[in-house]
């Protein structure tokens, strides 16, 4: 019997050691975590006016800390689970074809892939925004749940040449290493907040293709005006790199239409400032999902999302940051149902396209408004 327990102890020790070796190896060697920042990089970040010894900081005081009672409450809620946390069955997206995307014209179109990923076609340019197209929004499949849809509206290898990718920040539900790997041979340029370029360089993207931008900085890309505007959030991909890269929202201005994408973040006065400087917008894609009262400073409640659309002077609002992943403690349809009520109260037109449903942006257009989520 003693021999048995001795062997069992040895086996357990081997298993634990193997697990620790794998864990440390993954943590320090996996490309998922992105790149490092040189002294020259950090000097650039400090020159932005939004970076100090702790990293990048928001325009208004923002705390990520929770009280012990709030932390315990959150742990209990995750342990207990929530009702209707994901669709009752896999969402089946509308399918689009490469031929459709190659039929260029001057119309502005948007195709939503779920969460915050969408394809913007504007002035014959094709721009992918926050293309998290993988199945799990985490550095390892074991660390998260699968997305709600097994298939994408179009497979990555079927996408045509992409003029540019735009990234709001480096969290896993917005910047996915494997998606970038699959896309990089067909993307011309990358527009990212300061610091995020380190990840792309580590992933083999040539530096000349990467454009790192500061808040309020403008860039002309093939006659489009692209502007990185502020958001109220945070960043980080590992356990030691919180706020080492910038986060933000984006203005994309074409010849006829202007599009605003909020990125992630809590509600604050920056929306009004963006509206004054760059509004009105033909459409605003506003974060609306993965919120909780315990982290309301860094993720808007649906009612705030609707108000933010009013603040930026949007003609139409589209709620995003839902419809693909369960990352918080509300039901998967809570965001769209709550924002629908508030948008109506504020007289803010709302569009709710299905995944993969292509729609045209512009005055006089009829926008998708079906309650498709009720089918799931």
Describe this structure in words.
The chain has 376 residues and is an alpha/beta fold. It has one domain (98-375): Ribonuclease Z/Hydroxyacylglutathione hydrolase-like (Metallo-beta-lactamase, Chain A). Helices cover 26% and strands 19% of the residues. It has nine helices and 15 strands. Helix 7 packs parallel to helix 8 (302-311) and helix 8 crosses helix 9 (334-345). The radius of gyration is 21 Å and the shape is globular. The N and C termini lie far apart (55 Å). The model is unreliable at 16-28 (pLDDT under 50).
Shape: globular
Tell me the name of the CATH homologous superfamily: Ribonuclease Z/Hydroxyacylglutathione hydrolase-like
Radius of gyration: 21 Å
* β-strand number: 15
Order of helices and strands: HHEEHHEEEEHEHEEEEEHEHEHE
The CATH architecture would be: 4-Layer Sandwich
Measured between the Cα atoms of the first and last residue, the distance is 55 Å
User: How does the helix and strand content classify structurally?
Assistant: alpha/beta
Q: Main sheet, how many strands, which sense, barrel?
A: 7 strands, mixed
Keywords: Membrane, Transmembrane, Transmembrane helix
Pfam families: Lactamase_B_2 (PF12706)
Protein name: MBL fold metallo-hydrolase
Domain Metallo-beta-lactamase: 126-322
Write the layout of secondary structure elements.
Elements: H1 2-29, H2 39-47, E1 51-52, E2 55-56, H3 68-80, H4 98-102, E3 108-114, E4 117-122, E5 125-129, E6 162-166, H5 177-183, E7 187-193, H6 197-202, E8 210-213, E9 217-221, E10 224-229, E11 249-253, E12 258-261, H7 270-278, E13 283-287, H8 302-311, E14 317-320, H9 334-345, E15 358-361
């Amino acid at each position: 019997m003693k021999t048995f327990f001795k062997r069992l102890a040895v086996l357990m020790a081997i298993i634990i050691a193997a697990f620790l070796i794998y864990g440390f190896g993954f943590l320090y060697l996996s490309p998922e975590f992105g790149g490092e920042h040189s002294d020259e990089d950090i000097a650039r970040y400090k020159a932005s006016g939004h970076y100090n010894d702790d990293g990048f900081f928001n325009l208004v005081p923002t705390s990520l800390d929770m009280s012990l009672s709030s932390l315990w409450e959150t742990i209990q809620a995750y342990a207990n689970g929530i009702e209707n946390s994901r669709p009752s069955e896999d969402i089946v997206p509308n399918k689009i074809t490469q031929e459709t995307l190659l039929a260029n014209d001057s119309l502005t179109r948007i195709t939503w892939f779920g969460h915050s990923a969408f394809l913007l076609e504007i002035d014959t340019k094709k721009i992918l925004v926050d293309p998290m197209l993988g199945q799990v929004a985490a550095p390892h499949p074991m660390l998260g749940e699968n997305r709600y849809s097994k298939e994408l509206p179009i497979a990555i290898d079927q996408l045509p040449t992409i003029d540019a990718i735009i990234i709001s920040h480096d969290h896993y539900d917005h910047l996915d290493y494997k998606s970038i790997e699959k896309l990089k041979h067909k993307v011309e340029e990358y527009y990212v907040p300061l610091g995020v370029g380190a990840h792309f360089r580590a992933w083999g993207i040539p530096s000349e293709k990467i454009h790192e931008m500061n808040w309020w900085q403008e860039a002309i890309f093939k006659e489009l005006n692209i502007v990185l505007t502020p958001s109220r959030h945070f960043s980080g991909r590992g356990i030691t790199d919180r706020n080492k890269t910038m986060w933000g929202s984006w203005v994309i201005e074409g010849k006829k239409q202007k599009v605003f994408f909020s990125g992630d973040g809590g509600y604050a006065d920056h929306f009004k400032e963006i509206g004054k400087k760059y509004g009105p917008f033909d459409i605003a894609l506003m974060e609306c999902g993965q919120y909780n009262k315990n982290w309301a400073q860094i993720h808007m409640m649906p009612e705030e999302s609707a108000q933010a659309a009013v603040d930026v002077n949007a003609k139409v609002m589209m709620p995003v940051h839902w419809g693909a992943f369960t990352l918080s403690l509300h039901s998967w349809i809570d965001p769209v149902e709550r924002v629908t009520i508030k948008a109506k109260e504020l007289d803010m037109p709302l569009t709710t396209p299905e995944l993969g449903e292509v729609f045209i942006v512009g005055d006089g257009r009829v926008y998708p408004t079906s309650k498709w989520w009720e089918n799931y």
